[in-house]
Amino acid sequence: MRFVKAKDYNDMSRKAANIISAQVILRPDCVLGLATGSSPVGLYQCLIEWYEKGDLDFSGVTSVNLDEYRGLPHDNPQSYYYFMNDHLFSHINTDPAKTHVPDGMIADAGEACSQYDETIRSTGGVDLQLLGMGHNGHIGFNEPDEEFAKGTHCVDLAQSTIDANSRFFASREEVPTQAYTMGIQTIMAAKKILVVVSGADKADIVEKAFFGPITPHVPASILQLHADVTVVGDEAAFAKI
Ligand code: GLP
User: Fold this and answer.
1) What is the structure's pLDDT at 233?
2) Which residue of 62, 171, 228, 240 could cross-link 207, Cys pair, CB 3.0 to 4.6 Å?
3) At what angle do helices 9-26 and 41-52 cross, to 10 degrees?
4) With a 6 A CB cut-off, is 219 part of the ligand 1 pocket?
5) pLDDT score for 120
6) Contacts of 118 (CB under 8 A, 6+ apart)
7) CB of 233 shorter than 6 A to ligand 1
8) Strand (E) positions, 117-219?
9) Closest Cα to residue 186, out of 31, 7, 89, 66?
10) Strand 67-69 relative to strand 178-181, pairing
11) Cβ(143) to ligand 1 under 6 A?
């Protein structure tokens, strides 16, 4: 694992955006695995800025997002579909036919998940997977569990995740309790993985996930087994390593 220390959130965002830019410049038809949450927002802003300057072209890029709340329609501002359009897709020249987010409105979980696995398969595989990390070590919405889930699956969100994500909703009661998420095997199949972490509240989990035992109780710990992982974090998040 490679650790790239940044001064602060903005510095982390620029450094991570540079890594994604290099991927897009070197391989204009690459497949990006994308993430939501507050960690990647700054790097998406950098990508938009550089696209507007003419440095980047996303027309050939395919993207697959990690996860989506079950039951939230596309036009709900808290859905990850809405988030991706709002924070990235509507500002750059991505081809809507090539941007994929799990469909939270497919009520049948089995169908939603197998459809999304098929979508991921049809891309030919992820070249660069971007990840944030939850306070309990979740990646995508792969919550701590007794085993690592392989493909896309429906998860019951941990109470701590519901609490953490309630900051985006009017009340805790409005946070969906379930989500569809890409599985660990799919994440691990990406050729390269880029993790972004910022803030003092992530310092404990950074140490645990990347230097502690590899266990499904800390889902991000599996990344220690991947051959090409870069973690870009600010000083506060790296305080314990
Ligand atoms: C959410 C997302 C994850 C994200 C995590 C951390 O639960 N499903 O993909 O990595 O939260 O979010 P943040 O970056 O806001 O700390």
Assistant:
1) 98
2) 240
3) 50
4) no
5) 98
6) none
7) no
8) 128-131, 153-156, 178-181, 192-197
9) 66
10) antiparallel
11) no
User: What is the set of active-site residues?
Assistant: 67, 136, 138, 143
pLDDT at position 40? 98
Q: Both tokens of residue 31?
A: 């497949």
Interatomic CA distance for residues 33 and 91, integer angstroms? 18
Domains belonging to the chain, first-starting first, are 2-234 (3.40.50.1360)
- The ipTM value here is 0.95
Going through 132-228 in order, the beta strands assigned E by DSSP cover 153-156, 178-181, 192-197
- The amino acid occupying position 173 is E
122 burial (CB, 10 Å; 0-12 / 13-18 / 19+) is exposed
Q: Ligand 1, atom 1: nearest CA belongs to which residue?
A: 37
* pTM of the full structure: 0.97
How confident is the prediction for the chain on average, in pLDDT? 97
pLDDT in tens, 149-164: 999 999 999 999 999 9
**What is the CA(38)–ligand 1 centre distance, in A?**
7
Coil/strand/helix, residue 161:
helix
Give me ligand 1 centre to Cα 122, in Å. 26
